[in-house]
Write a structure and sequence with these properties.
Blueprint: H1 3-28, H2 31-46, H3 52-75, H4 85-111, H5 117-135, H6 137-146
Helix pairs in contact: 2-3, 2-5, 4-5
Length: 150
């Protein structure tokens, strides 16, 4: 094997790693799964404003939508990889921030005397999750690259 052959093989490996990362990021941020997740989040969060039998139905429907979408998303993934601790920590921090946003908007709506405060907070949180998923894509990509999976 010549030096040129070794360099060509190494370049092919790097090219495949870039293709794998691109496929992973494209699937992780695909629009249909994102919409299903946001709708599930909205259904669960807005269920606080519904009367007793309907709030349980909304929570079940929202959780079913989110978990079903997650299951289909994972099963159709072209690239599978383990989530590393820094990535899991990042997603947990985003989840806590979205939860804090939900309760902040709900409390502010309560003090402003707005009706259906949890539905308003759910809409704001769902839109924030949608915007955050697009805005945080470069951050997630850098976390994946830094951990050697890209």
């Amino acid at each position: 094997m010549t030096a040129y052959d070794a360099q060509t093989a190494l370049d092919a490996i790097h090219h495949r790693r870039e293709q794998t990362l691109a496929a992973y990021m494209r699937h992780a941020h695909s629009r249909p799964y994102l919409i299903v997740s946001v709708l599930g989040l909205f259904a669960v969060c807005s269920s606080f404003d519904l009367p007793s039998p309907w709030n349980t139905a909304a929570v079940l429907a929202g959780n079913g939508l989110t978990l079903g979408g997650l299951f289909v998303h994972q099963r159709r993934a072209p690239v599978r990889r383990k989530t590393v601790s820094s990535e899991g920590l990042f997603y947990s921090a985003v989840g806590v921030l979205l939860l804090a946003l939900f309760w902040t908007v709900a409390i502010a709506a309560h003090f402003l005397g707005l009706p259906a405060r949890h539905t308003l907070a759910a809409a704001v949180t769902a839109l924030a999750a949608l915007v955050a998923s697009y805005a945080m894509r470069p951050v997630v990509e850098s976390i994946v690259r830094r951990n050697g999976h890209g």
